[in-house]
């Protein structure tokens, strides 16, 4: 079928073009896309940071309605509305342990954007282009998505807001809830207040953390962080990172989504004995940390990374929806919508910090 898709080419703006989309294969569905969030991961893929083959149709935070089922699909029905999250095989040891972010095929699905047989459902002018990004490629009017990354969505829920649950909000909330397992006794520092960091702030509030410290270089983001639950905010640009953080020693938990080694090392230094630091930011290629290993050993501090907040979308997205329905997850504070045709403006606004989470409306 003919579709409209935003095609990414190296060092060029997205171009909305007519492409051809094959029907769904076994274990897949065809989705008419309603909305799709833009994430920094999409732009990093466009800029060849991950090795995603270009040209490509990106987009991995899609919401839409199923219009066709592939062979053998029985757990979903035509007409159902779904959130499309990240790709996973559903069968490897990590998938069966409800840790699909660590699927043995994650690189193929999510970064190299291909099925396991190397194929793509999208072509242009008769030539295949990369079109299975995060098992969906939802910067398009329609997408073929794997059923392993689908979560049902009730018709009354606003699609533009629900897109953020597929990746960005899921990562921040999952890091706090699943990885750090925050609770009322914790003093948590959250470093970086974009979509992921602000989601972490909201998660820490839901978890009842005694203190929630948000750190960023943008005063407007810190205003939002405080409105969402931060008990203290730190503008690390106004006086430099070291002086700004010196009085914060005593964090039990820390979460970094900046990927900046200097920030990560500073966050680590603020931890109490047995404090824990989780990392979810993309760092520059070859970036290293310099930590005193003896001090790590005697203090019992720990550092670990996380993919998608260690979340299983099939259970965690419904939990986030429940928080949203209770008014505990005000996604409207993060999302700004754009018509699909304004994808390049939306991406530019996100990179410039003018918006937090841009979301494209396909219709």
From TrEMBL:
Keywords: Metal-binding, Oxidoreductase, Zinc
InterPro entries cross-referenced by the UniProt entry: ADH-like_C, ADH-like_N, ADH_Zn_CS, ER, GroES-like_sf, NAD(P)-bd_dom_sf
Cofactor(s) needed for function: Zn(2+)
CDD domains, A to Z: benzyl_alcohol_DH (cd08278)
Domain of life: Bacteria
Residue ranges of every copy of the Enoyl reductase (ER) domain listed in the record: 9-360
Signal peptide (UniProt feature, chain positions): none
Similarity field: Belongs to the zinc-containing alcohol dehydrogenase family.
PANTHER family: NAD-DEPENDENT ALCOHOL DEHYDROGENASE (PTHR43350:SF17)
Name used for this protein in its record: NAD(P)-dependent alcohol dehydrogenase
Organism: Nannocystis pusilla
Lineage of source species: Bacteria, Pseudomonadati, Myxococcota, Polyangia, Nannocystales
